[in-house]
Design a protein that fits this description.
By secondary structure, the chain is α+β, with helices and mostly antiparallel strands. The protein has helices spanning 14-21, 28-41; strands spanning 9-12, 52-53, 60-64, 72-80, 85-93. It has 2 helices and 5 strands. The longest helix is centred in the middle third of the chain and has 14 residues, at 28-41.
Length: 103
């Protein structure tokens, strides 16, 4: 029996949208799968590689988009649990991620 609950709305910050456009061709499909999975399943995606909530930030989640080097990651924020809204705020290399500045 299908669930009747609404899907999550997933958007990109302007910065993340620009970052997504510059992803290597081999990484972009993983980001598209992530967005589809977020919309369908919500922010907690334990089955994604290295998924986790960022330490000390309950609304910030991240996962790895690939397993090679350089390692690419995506970071998203839950904007509203009731309305089911999320925003992807970073897409890029793990080395370039400034987790401490995300909020």
């Amino acid at each position: 029996m299908p669930e009747n609950r609404p899907k999550w709305a997933v958007s990109f910050s302007s910065k993340a949208a620009k970052q997504a456009k510059n992803l290597p061709a081999g990484i972009a499909p993983a980001l598209h799968l992530l967005v589809a999975d977020l919309a369908l399943s919500g922010p907690c995606l334990a089955h994604w590689r290295n998924y986790g909530v960022l330490a000390g930030r309950k609304k910030l989640h991240h996962c790895h988009l690939n397993g090679g080097k350089p390692r690419y990651v995506a970071v998203w924020r839950v904007e509203d649990k009731v309305l089911r809204i999320m925003e992807i705020i970073y897409v890029g290399t793990h080395e370039g991620a400034r987790y401490g500045r995300m909020g």
